[in-house]
Specification:
4% strand, Four Helix Bundle (Hemerythrin (Met), subunit A), 11 helices, Arc Repressor Mutant, subunit A, 66% helix, 244 residues, DNA-binding, homodimer, mainly alpha
Chain lengths: 244, 244
DNA sequence: CGGCCGTTGATTGGATCCAACATTACGCTA
DNA sequence: TAGCGTAATGTTGGATCCAATCAACGGCCG
């Protein structure tokens, strides 16, 4: 394993037993509500990829994963297919699966997608937001203030954004937004490293919610666009700084 | 099989042998460039769903499909997983796969996604379009004028739009656009039925290309937005008219 | 007569086995 | 010694078999 950021093929470094099944293994159904082994494998692999335990370029050997998860190769194969469709792994026929590399270009891509979709979702959602939904968003902002763990912070951020868009209707659009927000978690660590604790982001979050409370669609959209553009610029700067 | 549009569960009506393997079966590698049975099954099923031969609500029995394709159940299973990730089939654990229903809400969802993503892609692409790419787009417009078959017309329309966005960079964004454009094919027949032959659409296509030729980004964006909004309205009217 | 429960059939999820492909290493030849 | 062809090996793709689950049917009991 050479570099956790660039996309070179590195030696397979699957998650260790301690990482993947502290207690999940004992009661898989209860722990995560998984109904099939495929869902279980997919959920664990996805989490491991998104939080960086499986860096870009890691080769994913089916047999090795199957052994660690305590299942046969088949659920692993199906889980890998699902992850491929989510652009988290690349599969080549007869050559196996590799964790998708992250890069400055991919980050810019993700931000462009988010900018387009989230602005549209926000426009559609604000006029229909209920008081309960706005309160939920406010709760999530408060929770982010006192959350030290980067992983949970990413989840809270994701839930906040989705809460704001929840009234947009358009289930498939929201699903795409959620997917992109999840993918963004892979870059969150760099964002935090380059940007302290993101006090600015919290300011933007509050501004967006305030605008939503007042029903000022365009004001909220403007904040969101600036929010995303600044985040994109931060990531781009980070990659430039390290020659990515 | 009751209604090809609404989403009620209907009897399984898989593609017939004549539909799925006229000669593809004889030389699968050459015919479509498929490298694995899974790719083959996925491509055929996807085409059948998109062009309406497998209407929404059709139950997809693994064994039945496997028999018709001349393969075992496993490639079918993996292909269904891929299609599920593309929102073309719904899979429920232990209960099988069903072709995703189409509806007014789903159509509106798709248009909202397209409006957001394609506008963004067009903005990014126009400044970087090469003369060759613009010529390609012009060729596709001309081809659409003299294409009677609805299926091929949809493909040409897809290629035209993608040609306009090709210079946007952002591979993943373009991939999403392509996916949505493909999904749109399911609604194209209704669009044509309700709207004659779409003379208006061709007018918009030419206007977009002209604006792109002159580098007028905002003019092209305005046409695209109107183009999509009108198409969305046509589909909505169609569904309203038939009580959908 | 109606609702609940166990049983049966059909279908999918998972495991194991075999075949096909890709990569690598090796040896032969020019 | 460099290059090519071939064989060996490891990995994935596909087939078959078994287990688990769901839906439907029928019988039993209230």
């Amino acid at each position: 394993m050479l570099d956790p950021i660039n996309g070179r093929i590195v030696d397979a470094r699957p998650v260790t037993a301690a990482e993947i099944s502290p207690l999940d293994r004992l009661a898989p159904e209860l722990a995560g509500g998984w109904r099939t082994a495929t869902e279980y494998v997919e959920a664990i692999l996805k989490a491991a990829i998104l939080d960086g335990r499986l860096p870009g370029g890691t080769a994913l050997r089916q047999e090795e994963l199957a052994a660690r998860f305590g299942v046969s190769r088949m659920p692993v194969r199906e889980a890998l297919r699902q992850l491929e469709a989510q652009a988290l792994v690349d599969m080549l026929p007869h050559r196996g699966a590799v964790v998708t590399a992250i890069s400055a270009a991919d980050a810019a891509d993700g931000y462009a997608i988010r900018r387009a979709l989230e602005v549209a979702a926000l426009r559609l959602s604000i006029p229909n937001l209920t008081a309960a939904q706005r309160a939920e968003a406010a709760t999530l902002i408060a929770a982010m203030d006192s959350e030290p763990d980067a992983g949970r912070l990413g989840q809270l951020n994701r839930r906040f954004h989705l809460a704001l868009y929840a009234a947009a209707g358009h289930a498939r659009m929201l699903q795409l937004v959620e997917q992109e927000l999840s993918a963004f978690d892979r870059y969150l660590r760099f964002h935090l490293a380059a940007h302290g604790r993101g006090e600015m982001a919290q300011h933007d979050h509050r501004a967006m919610l305030d605008a939503a409370d007042r029903g000022e669609v365009e004001a909220a959209v403007a904040v969101l666009e600036r929010h995303l553009d600044q985040a994109a610029a931060t990531i781009a700067r980070f990659f430039r700084g390290r020659g990515g």
